[in-house]
Amino acid sequence: MSNDTNVDDPPEDVTDAPEDGESAERSERQGDRSPPEEDGDRRHDVDDPIDEFEPTSEEEDDDIETVEDLGSTVEVDPGVEVDEEIAEDDLLGGLKIDSTEDIEVPDRLVDQVIGQDEARDIIIKAAKQRRHVMMIGSPGTGKSMLAKAMSQLLPKEDLQDVLVYHNPDDGNEPKVRTVPAGKGEQIIDAHKEEARKRNQMRSILMWIIIAVVIGYAILSPASILLGVLAAGIIWLIFRYTSRGSDAMVPNMIVNNGDQRVAPFEDATGAHAGALLGDVRHDPFQSGGMETPSHDRVEPGSIHKSNKGVLFVDEINTLDIRTQQKLMTAIQEGEFAITGQSERSSGAMVQTEPVPCDFIMVAAGNLDAMENMHPALRNRIKGYGYEVYMDDTIEDTPEMRRKYARFIAQEVERDGRLPHFTDDAVEEVILEAKRRSGRKNHLTLLFRSLGGLVRVAGDIARAEDREFTTRDDVLQAKKRSRSIEQQLADDYIERRKDYELQVNEGGVEGRVNGLAVMGEDSGIMLPVMAEIAPAQGGGQVIATGKLQEMAEESVQNVSAIIKKFSDVDLSEKDIHIQFVQAGQQGVDGDSASITVATAVISALENIPVDQSVAMTGSLSVRGDVLPVGGVTHKIEAAAKAGCTKVIIPEANEQDVMIEEEYEEMIEIIPCANISEVLDVALMGEPKKDSLVDRLKSITGTAFDQGTVGSAGGSNPSPQ
Fold first, then answer.
1. Per residue in 636-687, pLDDT tens?
2. What is the DSSP string of 391-453?
3. Is the pTM value of this prediction over 0.85?
4. Which residue of 237, 418, 452, 590 has the fewest C-beta atoms within 10 A of its own C-beta?
5. DSSP E strands, 155-261
């Protein structure tokens, strides 16, 4: 057997080599460099050591999920009875269950997606047509789940193994070969067996020669030392030359033999080497001790995801040069692996192009589009889809049933949580309503909602209970707070020790405002106003470390005051103080009606009812505009002992307070500043005169339909 066997020729004892070896090699190289769309046919042109290899069994073919099998609808509650008569008002959407154990969880990830119907349909289409997808939206809305679901929809029969061979002509340019999935291991085993036989023959030959030399030296006593030295030299020569035989064994950089579905690679935050491939550094560069260059080649995520899905979240965090190379890989469908470090010996190594015919799923927040390479985005957009992930979805019986299934999915996925009782499921759905921030909507931020489910399940499991109950969910709501939320709550608790709260009687120029700290902690924030003679020209002075939006809201309020007041404001300074605003100051414009009420009260010497708290933005015409966080603000007012709370009329649909607060406080929606003053001010004759005068001055800039629609946008979190 010749020792200069070509790397692409199979070992002779495994299969018959083609008669024209050069023609076969040329055919393989042409096949490897074919365009990506021909990959499906390329694998049939490769000469493999094991021709009888079968990539998939008949049973596996039956399990392959295809787009045609999915359809466009998902059975929400298979095998569970639904009472349509009560579905509209029932928190479970009419589901007749005792616990989530009764709910069947779909096998396919794409069927487990909830609320993102448009994104789901796009993923199905993109999988069928092999299109790239960019998903933009808030964290926790299901982007990675959709990407994984896409990999399950791709055909498995196209998967390939990728082998890298030593190049005898140029060791720094290893050769690349692709074979059907599962065949790579058998090729390597065949090459290893061939190398083992060669090494065995060499060892036998070496020991024979050494025995002859030593025997000759023993027969000639004068040459014993020379014979031992010659035997050592022979041993070193054979050891050195045997490394060439080991170098003939290829390195399999991509192994899809055990892959049951198309590959899915999460390359989020990957550095250039992990994403594009790399060549390991070798400290031994000479003397026959170096590792062959093809054995040091490491595949990147783009190569491992060949025929599958490459998912990159927060794509804008990738280096611009890396994004450029990623764009090249998408365009060419193949990308050579080279050393990424200029100081490494691997920098001189560059393989032949390695297949990377993947589907790109890029994801990120809205800011991801700003720092993303425009050419890369253009390529995704030109050859695929862009989709925005919704944060909320309309509350319907069908969606509530899906949310019940979501809890069952989380329990099954975790594997250690007790199933949830029906009242526990209802409490989670209520929390989904609250977190949406919109009336008749449910949140789609499933990661945080899933965290609540897991914490509640952990509480029940710690007490060794069979099911997770409503009490566990209520306890979990307190335990699953974020660090920011815990800091906010701690600040509010400390603040109570020094709080100047007044919740009864009347005080001129003082109003109980409301704000939100953290994510969902309401806080009462008093606002005081005082009128003083001006030292120069009259001006409005606001203190409390106001941010830009809060300063602008004060200016809007001053326009209302100047228009209605009989006082010559050029001779007066209006001082406004946000009491106990803290180091973070005040942001947002939701204190506008609070400031206006405090200033008007101080100007007219009319007391403000301290049992009333309020929140709302204000236009220069006097309209009360919607704000965010009204639910948490109302609860804060109730905790502080207030009996009434004023909110924008447009926010009335967003109120979802806990049951314990419903009897504690009266919610009064207002559309105009005159309505606010009518509720907040005390002293009937003087108040009535003021309100009547204000009604004649301020108008309604918006009709009710316009203001109502604005409330749905959930404008300001403060």
1. 888 888 999 999 998 888 888 887 888 889 999 999 888 998 899 987 777 7
2. SEEE--HHHHHHHHHHHHHHHHHHSSSPEEBHHHHHHHHHHHHHHHTSTTEEE--HHHHHHHH
3. no
4. 237
5. 160-165, 175-180, 251-254
CA-to-CA distance for 323 and 486, rounded, in angstroms?
A: 38
Residues 424, 472: contact at Cβ < 8 Å? Answer: yes
Q: pLDDT by residue (tens digit) across 62-97? A: 444 444 444 334 445 556 788 888 888 888 888 889
Q: 622, 695 in Cβ contact below 8 A?
A: no
Say if CB 679 and CB 666 are below 8 A apart: no
Q: What is the pLDDT of residue 417?
A: 93
How far are the Cα atoms of 242, 435, 651, 694 from residue 439, in angstroms, in the given order? 76, 10, 9, 32
Q: Which two tokens stand for residue 712?
A: 């749905």
Number of other CB atoms surrounding residue 336 within 10 Å: 17
DSSP-assigned states of every residue in 610-672: TTEEE--EE-TTSBEEP-S-HHHHHHHHHHTT-SEEEEEGGGGGG----HHHHTT-EEEEESB
Q: Which amino acid is at 190?
A: A
* Active site amino acids: 590, 633
DSSP per residue, 80-128: --B-TTTTTT-TTTTB--SBGGGSPPPSSHHHH--S-HHHHHHHHHHHH
Amino acid at site 52: E
Q: How far apart are CA 641 and CA 629, in angstroms?
A: 19
Number of C-alpha atoms within 13 angstroms, CB side, residue 418? 21
Please name every residue paired with 176 in a beta bridge, in sequence order, or none if there are none: 164
User: C-alpha 20: how far from its chain's center?
Assistant: 53
Beta bridge partners of 543: 577
From residue 543, give the alpha-carbon distance in Å to each of 131, 443, 579.
55, 36, 9
| One-letter amino acid of 71 | G
DSSP one-letter string for 282-321: -S--STT-SPPGGGGEE--HHHHTTTSEEEESSGGGS-HH
Structure tokens belonging to residue 365: 């927040």
Rounded Cα distance between 63 and 61, Å, is: 5
